[in-house]
Amino acid sequence: MAASPLVELHDVRLTRASVRLLLKRDDLIHPHLPGNKWRKLKHNLARAAKLEHDTLLTFGGAYSNHVRAVAAAGAHFGFQTVGVIRGEEHLPLNEVLTFATDCGMQLTYLDRTTYRAKNTRPVVEALREKFGRFYLLPEGGSNDLAVRGCAELPAEIDVPFDVICCPVGTGGTLAGIAAGLAPGQRALGISVLRGGEFLADDVARLQAAYGKTSSNWSISHDFHAGGYAKRNADLDAFIDDFANRHEMRLDWVYVAKMMFGVFTMVERGAFPQGSVIVAVVTGVMGPG
Q1: CATH annotation of 6-35+143-287
Q2: What are the residues whose beta carbons fall under 8 Å from the beta carbon of 175, sequence distance 6 or more?
Q3: Measured in whole angstroms, how far is the alpha carbon of residue 171 from the centre of its chain?
Q4: Most exposed among 23, 171, 184, 229, judged by the fewest C-beta atoms under 10 Å?
């Protein structure tokens, strides 16, 4: 896959604050493996192939873009795929799970109590008895190999910058980006979860697993708009305004919350004048 493009966003609010904002358009990497999904999967797919696995198994909710991406990757690279979905089956399948099954993914379901124990040996062994040998991808795809893939992102940016921002759901993308920064640069994560203070421990754990810890990152918890996959009037108004200004409609689950956070912080003077900010577009964006 080719490196994603870097484009500057021109906006009077940025000019007024004397800062520049560049978008790292990871949403354009691949139509079915966009954003951080490919970066998280690329080294895992190579490891699975090296270990001669023919099946990938992963976890997610019914609207998980990670599940969708794993299904697409399996179809593209010749792996069978299994998606372990949180909760009960609901028919007809939603768009995400329909796409996954169209790619050949086999779906199975765990009640929410069992799903919370998905990483325990009894649950994993029960899945192995049912599906045989498989390469296990964690929920959201975040592990040491995912961090490695995300750590490669900063080196693709050929413009000097001060801060790089990304939305945070599981911590893998932030952990990797921060690990790949040059001295003097810092990473800012915008949590999309309500009560996501635990994410700091997850980022630190993922960096430790990768083998490169750093203190050049932080997480803001002020822009979750009510919690994961939730939205409020302020976020909706920002999305509409952004679409009118820039003819791009932001993904409201992740990217819009990050951008809302960035612009709010710009207007509050959180970034010194002359700062160059990079915002990583980790999800699909549509026309305004």
Answers
A1: 3.40.50.1100
A2: 142, 147, 150, 202, 203, 204, 206, 207, 210, 217
A3: 8
A4: 184
Q: Do domains 6-35+143-287 and 54-133 have the same CATH topology?
A: yes
What does the pLDDT read at residue 60? 93
CA proximity to 173, closest of 211, 134, 137, 199: 199
Question: Which 8-state DSSP code applies to residue 2?
Answer: P
Euclidean distance between CA atoms 159 and 182, whole angstroms: 12
pTM, 2 dp? 0.91
CATH number of the 54-133 domain: 3.40.50.1100
Distance CA 83, CA 70 (A): 8
Give residue-wise pLDDT tens across range 235-287.
999 999 999 999 999 989 899 999 999 999 999 999 999 999 999 998 776 66
Q: Which two tokens stand for residue 122?
A: 């009894």
Euclidean distance between CA atoms 155 and 169, whole angstroms: 23
Spatial contact of 148 and 176, defined as CB atoms under 8 Å apart = yes
d(CA 114, CA 137): 17
Domain ranges of the chain: 6-35+143-287, 54-133
CA distance 284 to 261: 18
> What is the H or E stretch that residue 128 is in?
helix 121-131
Can you read off the two tokens belonging to residue 139? Answer: 């929920």
Between CA 147 and CA 77 the distance in angstroms is: 21
